């Protein structure tokens, strides 16, 4: 307020954008903040406080552009200042993610600058023309325009906010673990897998997507099929966890099952025994034997965990019982 970096209406009143927790939220004028040097100062001070260069990413929420009519500053001018801020973050080795694409003037001015947004609302042709390495997103926002079923084809990531707090985000949800882990296994895991693959074609009136590695993603049942083998169907899945430096599979079943069977990935074909470590649903650690590249596992409803290969281990299992789950 003192340095006049809050946007104003034409009347001179400060621009209030909403009310959160009973307090007003004001729109920062990016053009004036950048020109004053305060934007760079704020970024530098935050990076002194937090190891963001090591982390390599920062999330800037509600990064909307609105005009400062009192000074004749347009949305286009604010967008240009926003891009300067993002480029400064990049010069410091930090990728900026944000909430939306922010089509304030009907165009996506952040493509190539922001690698990921929390809510990704794209058209079918956008998914096909823009690889996930250029732009990917969390989940599809149900409040915005777009085909909400595209998330079944191309994946949607975890939205933890709805698990950690109540509907109005006013109080902490003490029972967050189970819904969060289900959200993570059934969304983030397949989302990263699908976004690691090049997109080749949309088939059968956009009901199926053909991806790299002979992978088919289907809207119906949220099915993911690789070379004829089902990796996911509805709430039951066995999918590679690609962030791991060592081979790792994530398994989960919403309904549970006594003898769920999956085919191990081709690169695991020499693996005879695997370790299973549950993280939710009350299961027990186990060492399992794969027969002809297939794994049989029993899961409780809502149970999920991690499967890793046992290499060179010939003695008693290091974790849990030995058997078929």
Short description:
By secondary structure, the chain is an alpha+beta fold. Helices cover 23% and strands 28% of the residues. Among the domains are: 1-94, no CATH class; 236-325, Golgi alpha-mannosidase II (Immunoglobulin-like, Sandwich), CATH 2.60.40.
Spatial strand order of the main sheet: 7-8-9-10-11-12-13-18-15-16-19
Please work out how many helical segments DSSP would assign.
8
Largest beta sheet, briefly?
A: 11 strands, mixed
Order of helices and strands: EEHHHEHEEHEHHHEEEEEEEEEEEEE
**Helical residue percent band:** 10-25%
Q: Count all strands and give the number.
A: 19
Portion of residues in beta strands equals 25-35%
Q: What oligomeric state is this? A: single chain
Instruction: Please give the alpha-carbon distance between the first and last residues.
Output: 63 Å
Unreliable segments of 5+ consecutive residues: 313-325
What gross morphology would you assign? elongated
